[in-house]
Amino acid sequence: MNLNVLWFLLLGVxxxxxxxxxxxxxxxxxxxxxxxxxxxxxxLLNAIGPVWDGNEVWxxxxxxxxxxxxxxxxxxxFSGLYTALMLVLLMLILRAVAIEFRSKRESPRWxxxxxxxxxxxxLLASLLFGVAVGNxxxxxxxxxxxxxxxRLIRLLHPYAVLTGLFTxxxxxxxxxxxxxxxxxxxxxxxxxxxxxxxxLVFLVLYGATTVYTLAGTRLALRNFGAHPWLWVLPVVCxxxxxxxxxxxxxxxxxxxxxSSSLTLLGLVGLLxxxxxxxxxxxxxxxxxxxxxxxxxxxxxxxxxxxxxxxSGMPLVLIYTCVIYRVFRGKVEVSKFSx
Length: 338
What we know:
It contains 11 helices and 2 strands. By secondary structure, it is mainly alpha-helical.
């Protein structure tokens, strides 16, 4: 394995970590307005209160790693899709502001305002992440000079909208399963209904997205012939998805959440398997695509960063596990809570 491939895998790990950890944060936000009572909404916010900001660090780290390891890809994407990326950033900022500002006043109108901002920000951020995946699979009009100029409206083609809706459903399900572990009583029963509905919507969109991907994209299975072991990824996804329903019916929230996490891990793996060795596929001419070779930093830079990353990542994983262990268990709301 050379350094270019190693950094492609490390980016995949960071993206999977973000999808799993911030995915349930976004899912809780999507479901937030479903709770009618103020106390229930406070429980939802405090379920993610200790961890939501740390989860978003995975996205920042992904962006930093992309800049350092593959600067040409970073420059092409961030300059060509500036408006879309700023919109995503705005949604994430609004979510953070809503979480912190909601509890500053006890006025119902004030709290309903920030509840709405939190829900809409989570929904649109999830939708835009899914749209980004759809466009990555279809390709961007990258020119031979590595330039990309695309208006925001052109990102919203049918396949991208479908992957966006699929991501919303997946994150809503992931968030509901997380809430099932953090709540009890009548609120947990309400969460169970949310999870059941989200699961059904997810299954429909998963089937539609799979069919559209296989029929409408050129990248989906191009590496599976040369690397048959990649078939493990869709098998893991299907088994994990089926186990979500089984665990949900049995009330095994932890098992269901682990299964949804494996689903996200498998889907990120399938995205990587479809793109490799490309980072940004050119829809104009595959020869103009940005790959892990023509978009990479020097071998010296990749080597130095690999030592730093492989030394620091175990510490990050240990810290993350400790945080989740400390804040495990059901949520209890006090006057000092959100």
